Fold:
Amino acid sequence: MPSGCWSLPDLAWTLSADEVADVPRPDPDGVLQLLRSRRVTRTFTSESVSADALTMILEAGCWASSASNNRILRFLVVQEAESIRLVRALSPGMLGVPPGLIVVCTDLRAAAQAGLQLDKDRSTWIDVGTAAMNMMVQAHALALGTCPVTSFSQAGVSTILRLPGHAVPELMLQVGHSTDGENQQRLKGGRSDRRLKRFVFWDRYGG
Ligand SMILES: Cc1cc2nc3c(=O)[nH]c(=O)nc-3n(C[C@H](O)[C@H](O)[C@H](O)COP(=O)(O)O)c2cc1C
Structure:
């Protein structure tokens, strides 16, 4: 399908109306509180992240919204300390030493199959953001810290992680336990009134 052309969603990825009706709704205030209290973590303890937690985070990434439902992203989990050390050496944006990394990759084969022209289609990059955000929020719900990294050598990281030629690393998500814990101030979250005033316009774009 040409890029920019919207299709009906792939039904395999959707829930039936009955299933949707059965989904328990989380408390809206609780969801907003979770979003407001998430902050990036740049210092991690050495404690590893459990497989269950990682799986839940990855599941959240796989359920992110995707332009035209093309789903051309793949996720590589890296937990070997030596690999993370080497990746970090090639990643100016990676300030922490996390016990886990989730490398979000564009799969060029999947992109070709979807008929995408990656150099022209901006929406594929947005998919990276939706997946990353889903994972960051899920990790926060699990009391884990995350920080995205986009400042890194794609060629270098591909070599260290022995990525196949059709996998392009787009963003790496550092995942681990934050050294600063979840302090009360953060859990209260930031001031929404200030952000709304600064970033949001109603009906007409303001100055
Ligand atoms: C697309 C994207 C790329 C980012 N790249 C980096 C990065 O390379 N290194 C880093 O330390 N933080 C990176 N960040 C984290 C931002 O600096 C951080 O989200 C921002 O300062 C706001 O902080 P908050 O997420 O705690 O609200 C990135 C965030 C986004 C959304």
Summary: The chain has nine helices and four strands. Residues 1-11 have pLDDT under 50 and may be disordered. Residues 27-199 form a domain with the NADH Oxidase fold (CATH 3.40.109.10). The first helix runs from residue 17 to 22.
